[in-house]
Amino acid sequence: xxxxxxxxxxxxxxxxxxxxxxxxxxxxxxxxxxxxxxxxxxxxxxxxxxxxxxxxxxxxxxxxxxxxxxxxxxxxxxxxxxxxxxxxxxxxxxxxxxxxxxxxxxxxxxxxxxxxxxxxxxxxxxxxxxxxxxxxxxxxxxxxxxxxxxxxxxxxxxxxxxxxxxxxxxxxxxxxxxxxxxxxxxxxxxxxxxxxxxxxxxxxxxxxxxxxxxxxxxxxxxxxxxxxxxxxxxxxxxxxxxxxxxxxxxxxxxxxxxxxxxxxxxxxxxxxxxxxxxxxxxxxxxxxxxxxxxxxxxxxxxxxxxxxxxxxxxxxxxxxxxxxxxxxxxxxxxxxxxxxxxxxxxx
Length: 347
Ligand SMILES: Nc1nc2c(c(=O)[nH]1)N[C@H]1C(S)=C(S)[C@@H](COP(=O)(O)O)O[C@H]1N2
Ligand SMILES: [Mo]
Fold this sequence. Notes:
This protein has eleven helices and twelve strands. It is an alpha+beta fold. The structure holds the ligand Nc1nc2c(c(=O)[nH]1)N[C@H]1C(S)=C(S)[C@@H](COP(=O)(O)O)O[C@H]1N2 and molybdenum atom.
């Protein structure tokens, strides 16, 4: 299946290679008059013919991690390259590493966009375990290695569209969630999958805050067919390296056709169930955030329009506002999942 999203800023599909993405980015930054700063801020993308985005060789400190598990660094390095076309890449300029890792939503580390990269200091990802429970044949507590070792990792470039109407284009490293789910042998009662983030007040200042409105831990969920969809990614890296703490280390979900809040970070529990789980944002504001949260330019948030988005990076003088696409541009691949549903009501 070939999904092409036509946008004014898109480069021809014949040029969709990491190198041309890099060139497009250079041209963009020059045009915006921030070439120097922008190019120094981010890593240089892959100039070699390998088709992967070059790894910036980050220190643990730079990623806000206590350590970088060597086996995981190596598994990420051995990833399959980004395909030249199709569903798992886009023709758009990548959002620079600097923006991807300093403009974050991760309320466990604070509510400002710059809080997660500043407050997630020496985050511990080793050891890390994931408890897998519910309607499956193989429940248990799995180490991160148990979870990841059998899977070949892939690099995939996806758009990420936040419900707050900004977006990025991010080169993730991960593998299809469906491949992991099959290993747990779900039973016929597994109709939904629930995901839960780490709760650790010592490491996560947002969970200590008396001002916090969220009832921790952060929770998300998918219907089983959404979880099994080939686009649904379990990510362990971005820009060719393991995930920084602020991006959801060591393991996070990426569901590119849904608003960003579905893409839950730092997962410690996966639960298979017969009924729809409660989820953090729809519990907090059910009239503003729903369970499905499919990107939909036709359904406004009660307090703002969803028809357009601010593509990062931008600036005061060049906000880089673009039209939002149904299902974030992935409609051809996912619209069938929602046949017969009223997506105005089931937002
Ligand atoms: N545990 C947890 N996961 C989370 C969030 C959060 O606050 N806590 N924020 C969500 C929101 S609103 C968005 S837009 C994305 C942002 O991902 P990024 O910071 O890697 O771009 O993470 C999502 N996952
Ligand atoms: Mo978001």
